[in-house]
Amino acid sequence: MAADKKRGIQTVRDMVISLAVIVLAAGVIYQFIPHDEGKDPVKPVSYDIEVKSARRAAPYPVAAPEGLSKKWRATSVRYTAGQGPEGSRWHLGFMTPDDEYAAVEQSDAKRPERYVRDITQGAEKTARTERIGGTEWVRYEGAKYDALVRKPDADSKASTVVTGTAPFKQLRQLAGALEARKVQVPSTPPSTPSDKAASGQAAG
Protein backbone atom coordinates (compact mmCIF):
# COMPACT_ATOMS: atom_id res chain seq x y z
CA MET A 1 0.00 0.00 0.00
CA ALA A 2 2.79 2.41 0.95
CA ALA A 3 4.55 1.65 -2.33
CA ASP A 4 1.38 2.35 -4.31
CA LYS A 5 0.87 5.63 -2.47
CA LYS A 6 4.46 6.68 -3.13
CA ARG A 7 4.12 5.74 -6.79
CA GLY A 8 0.93 7.86 -7.05
CA ILE A 9 2.67 10.88 -5.51
CA GLN A 10 5.56 10.53 -7.96
CA THR A 11 3.13 10.31 -10.88
CA VAL A 12 1.39 13.55 -9.87
CA ARG A 13 4.73 15.25 -9.35
CA ASP A 14 5.95 14.11 -12.76
CA MET A 15 2.77 15.47 -14.38
CA VAL A 16 3.23 18.85 -12.69
CA ILE A 17 6.86 19.01 -13.79
CA SER A 18 5.94 18.07 -17.37
CA LEU A 19 3.23 20.72 -17.47
CA ALA A 20 5.64 23.35 -16.15
CA VAL A 21 8.18 22.43 -18.83
CA ILE A 22 5.52 22.72 -21.56
CA VAL A 23 4.38 26.15 -20.32
CA LEU A 24 7.98 27.35 -20.12
CA ALA A 25 8.72 26.12 -23.64
CA ALA A 26 5.60 27.82 -24.99
CA GLY A 27 6.65 31.08 -23.35
CA VAL A 28 10.11 30.89 -24.90
CA ILE A 29 8.67 30.17 -28.36
CA TYR A 30 6.23 33.10 -28.03
CA GLN A 31 9.09 35.47 -27.23
CA PHE A 32 10.86 34.58 -30.46
CA ILE A 33 7.79 34.89 -32.70
CA PRO A 34 7.54 38.40 -34.24
CA HIS A 35 4.43 40.33 -33.17
CA ASP A 36 3.05 43.48 -34.69
CA GLU A 37 1.73 45.10 -31.52
CA GLY A 38 0.99 48.36 -33.33
CA LYS A 39 -1.21 46.78 -36.00
CA ASP A 40 -4.70 48.23 -36.24
CA PRO A 41 -7.22 45.48 -35.31
CA VAL A 42 -9.92 47.24 -37.35
CA LYS A 43 -10.23 45.97 -40.92
CA PRO A 44 -11.27 48.92 -43.12
CA VAL A 45 -13.53 48.27 -46.09
CA SER A 46 -13.83 50.13 -49.38
CA TYR A 47 -17.24 51.58 -50.15
CA ASP A 48 -16.84 53.48 -53.43
CA ILE A 49 -18.52 50.82 -55.55
CA GLU A 50 -21.33 50.32 -53.03
CA VAL A 51 -22.05 54.06 -52.94
CA LYS A 52 -22.29 54.25 -56.73
CA SER A 53 -24.55 51.20 -56.86
CA ALA A 54 -26.81 52.51 -54.09
CA ARG A 55 -27.11 55.91 -55.78
CA ARG A 56 -28.40 54.17 -58.89
CA ALA A 57 -30.81 51.88 -57.06
CA ALA A 58 -32.17 53.95 -54.17
CA PRO A 59 -35.34 56.03 -54.60
CA TYR A 60 -33.65 58.92 -52.77
CA PRO A 61 -30.25 60.69 -52.86
CA VAL A 62 -27.77 58.49 -50.98
CA ALA A 63 -25.47 60.27 -48.51
CA ALA A 64 -21.78 59.47 -48.13
CA PRO A 65 -18.96 61.55 -46.63
CA GLU A 66 -16.35 63.34 -48.69
CA GLY A 67 -13.11 64.79 -47.38
CA LEU A 68 -12.83 62.85 -44.10
CA SER A 69 -9.30 62.08 -42.96
CA LYS A 70 -7.92 58.56 -43.36
CA LYS A 71 -8.23 58.16 -39.60
CA TRP A 72 -11.94 57.60 -40.21
CA ARG A 73 -12.06 53.92 -41.18
CA ALA A 74 -15.12 52.49 -42.89
CA THR A 75 -15.98 49.12 -41.36
CA SER A 76 -19.36 48.20 -42.87
CA VAL A 77 -21.49 49.16 -45.85
CA ARG A 78 -24.75 47.85 -47.27
CA TYR A 79 -27.82 48.86 -49.23
CA THR A 80 -31.09 46.97 -48.79
CA ALA A 81 -33.86 47.57 -51.28
CA GLY A 82 -37.40 47.45 -49.97
CA GLN A 83 -40.92 48.17 -51.08
CA GLY A 84 -42.80 47.70 -47.80
CA PRO A 85 -43.18 50.03 -44.81
CA GLU A 86 -39.52 49.47 -43.85
CA GLY A 87 -38.39 51.19 -47.02
CA SER A 88 -35.01 50.99 -48.71
CA ARG A 89 -32.10 51.29 -46.29
CA TRP A 90 -28.56 52.61 -46.66
CA HIS A 91 -25.88 51.99 -44.01
CA LEU A 92 -22.25 53.12 -43.85
CA GLY A 93 -20.39 52.50 -40.59
CA PHE A 94 -17.09 53.98 -39.41
CA MET A 95 -14.57 53.78 -36.60
CA THR A 96 -13.58 57.33 -35.68
CA PRO A 97 -10.02 58.49 -35.00
CA ASP A 98 -10.79 57.87 -31.30
CA ASP A 99 -12.00 54.32 -32.02
CA GLU A 100 -15.64 55.18 -31.44
CA TYR A 101 -18.46 54.02 -33.68
CA ALA A 102 -20.31 56.38 -36.02
CA ALA A 103 -22.65 55.53 -38.88
CA VAL A 104 -24.67 57.09 -41.66
CA GLU A 105 -28.15 55.59 -41.86
CA GLN A 106 -30.87 56.40 -44.39
CA SER A 107 -34.34 55.09 -45.12
CA ASP A 108 -37.58 56.14 -46.76
CA ALA A 109 -39.54 54.12 -44.18
CA LYS A 110 -43.23 54.97 -43.89
CA ARG A 111 -42.82 55.64 -40.15
CA PRO A 112 -39.67 57.77 -39.76
CA GLU A 113 -39.93 58.09 -35.97
CA ARG A 114 -39.98 54.34 -35.51
CA TYR A 115 -37.06 53.93 -37.91
CA VAL A 116 -35.01 56.53 -36.02
CA ARG A 117 -35.80 54.92 -32.68
CA ASP A 118 -34.71 51.49 -33.94
CA ILE A 119 -31.54 52.66 -35.65
CA THR A 120 -30.39 54.77 -32.67
CA GLN A 121 -30.99 52.03 -30.10
CA GLY A 122 -33.81 53.98 -28.46
CA ALA A 123 -32.27 57.46 -28.36
CA GLU A 124 -34.76 60.17 -27.38
CA LYS A 125 -35.51 63.31 -29.35
CA THR A 126 -34.45 66.56 -27.66
CA ALA A 127 -35.52 70.15 -28.22
CA ARG A 128 -32.05 71.02 -29.50
CA THR A 129 -31.25 71.45 -33.16
CA GLU A 130 -27.96 72.09 -34.93
CA ARG A 131 -27.30 73.90 -38.18
CA ILE A 132 -24.76 71.91 -40.18
CA GLY A 133 -23.88 72.81 -43.75
CA GLY A 134 -27.00 74.90 -44.12
CA THR A 135 -29.24 72.03 -42.98
CA GLU A 136 -31.06 71.67 -39.68
CA TRP A 137 -30.44 68.48 -37.73
CA VAL A 138 -32.37 67.40 -34.63
CA ARG A 139 -30.33 66.15 -31.71
CA TYR A 140 -31.18 62.78 -30.12
CA GLU A 141 -29.61 61.47 -26.93
CA GLY A 142 -29.55 57.92 -25.60
CA ALA A 143 -27.94 55.53 -23.15
CA LYS A 144 -26.08 53.68 -25.92
CA TYR A 145 -26.12 55.91 -29.02
CA ASP A 146 -26.51 59.62 -29.62
CA ALA A 147 -27.66 60.91 -32.98
CA LEU A 148 -28.22 63.80 -35.34
CA VAL A 149 -31.35 63.36 -37.44
CA ARG A 150 -32.48 65.06 -40.62
CA LYS A 151 -36.09 64.30 -41.43
CA PRO A 152 -37.45 63.69 -44.95
CA ASP A 153 -38.08 66.78 -47.07
CA ALA A 154 -38.99 67.62 -50.64
CA ASP A 155 -35.41 67.05 -51.77
CA SER A 156 -34.32 63.91 -49.92
CA LYS A 157 -37.59 61.99 -49.30
CA ALA A 158 -35.62 59.97 -46.73
CA SER A 159 -34.61 60.17 -43.09
CA THR A 160 -30.87 60.68 -42.68
CA VAL A 161 -29.34 59.71 -39.35
CA VAL A 162 -25.77 60.10 -38.11
CA THR A 163 -25.51 57.98 -34.98
CA GLY A 164 -23.17 55.97 -32.79
CA THR A 165 -21.07 55.99 -29.64
CA ALA A 166 -18.96 58.87 -30.95
CA PRO A 167 -19.31 62.25 -29.22
CA PHE A 168 -21.47 64.92 -30.84
CA LYS A 169 -18.37 66.74 -32.04
CA GLN A 170 -17.51 63.81 -34.31
CA LEU A 171 -21.13 63.17 -35.27
CA ARG A 172 -21.28 66.80 -36.43
CA GLN A 173 -18.07 66.32 -38.37
CA LEU A 174 -19.48 63.28 -40.15
CA ALA A 175 -22.80 65.00 -40.86
CA GLY A 176 -20.99 68.04 -42.25
CA ALA A 177 -19.00 65.87 -44.66
CA LEU A 178 -22.05 64.20 -46.19
CA GLU A 179 -22.89 64.65 -49.85
CA ALA A 180 -26.24 63.25 -50.95
CA ARG A 181 -26.56 62.30 -54.61
CA LYS A 182 -28.70 60.16 -56.85
CA VAL A 183 -27.51 58.80 -60.17
CA GLN A 184 -30.23 58.82 -62.78
CA VAL A 185 -30.21 55.65 -64.84
CA PRO A 186 -31.02 56.56 -68.46
CA SER A 187 -34.16 54.87 -69.67
CA THR A 188 -34.36 53.23 -73.08
CA PRO A 189 -36.96 55.02 -75.25
CA PRO A 190 -39.69 52.74 -76.60
CA SER A 191 -39.21 51.73 -80.20
CA THR A 192 -41.63 53.13 -82.79
CA PRO A 193 -43.10 51.26 -85.78
CA SER A 194 -40.72 53.13 -88.10
CA ASP A 195 -37.77 52.01 -85.95
CA LYS A 196 -38.92 48.42 -86.20
CA ALA A 197 -39.36 48.72 -89.97
CA ALA A 198 -35.92 50.24 -90.37
CA SER A 199 -34.48 47.48 -88.23
CA GLY A 200 -36.19 44.85 -90.39
CA GLN A 201 -34.88 46.42 -93.60
CA ALA A 202 -31.37 46.55 -92.20
CA ALA A 203 -31.59 42.90 -91.27
CA GLY A 204 -32.83 42.02 -94.76
Description:
The protein is an alpha+beta fold. It has a domain at 48-181: MucB/RseB, C-terminal domain (Phosphorylase Kinase, domain 1, 2-Layer Sandwich). It has helices at residues 2-32, 48-57, 112-119, 168-176, 193-203, and strands at residues 62-65, 73-80, 89-95, 101-107, 124-132, 135-141, 146-150, 159-164, 178-181. The chain is elongated, with a radius of gyration of 29 Å. The termini are far apart. The relative contact order is 0.13. The model has no long low-confidence stretch (mean pLDDT 84). InterPro entries: DUF4245. Residues 180-204 are annotated as: Disordered. This is DUF4245 domain-containing protein.
Number of helices: 5
CATH architecture name of the domain at 48-181: 2-Layer Sandwich
The biggest sheet amounts to: 7 strands, antiparallel
Mean pLDDT, to the nearest integer, reads 84
> Which consecutive residue ranges, at least 5 long each, have pLDDT under 50?
none
Q: Work out the strand percent.
A: 25-35%
Shape: elongated
Q: Which structural class matches the secondary elements?
A: alpha+beta
Strand order of the largest sheet: 2-3-4-8-7-6-5
Radius of gyration: 29 Å
Protein name: DUF4245 domain-containing protein
Region (Disordered): 180-204
InterPro entries: DUF4245
Transmembrane segments: 12-33
Output the keywords.
two-stranded antiparallel sheet; elongated; alpha+beta; Phosphorylase Kinase, domain 1; 7-stranded antiparallel sheet; 204 residues; 9 strands
What layout of secondary structure does this protein have?
Blueprint: H1 2-32, H2 48-57, E1 62-65, E2 73-80, E3 89-95, E4 101-107, H3 112-119, E5 124-132, E6 135-141, E7 146-150, E8 159-164, H4 168-176, E9 178-181, H5 193-203
Antiparallel strand pairs: 1-9, 2-3, 3-4, 4-8, 5-6, 6-7, 7-8
Organism: Streptomyces boncukensis
InterPro entries: DUF4245 (IPR025339)
Keywords: Membrane, Transmembrane, Transmembrane helix
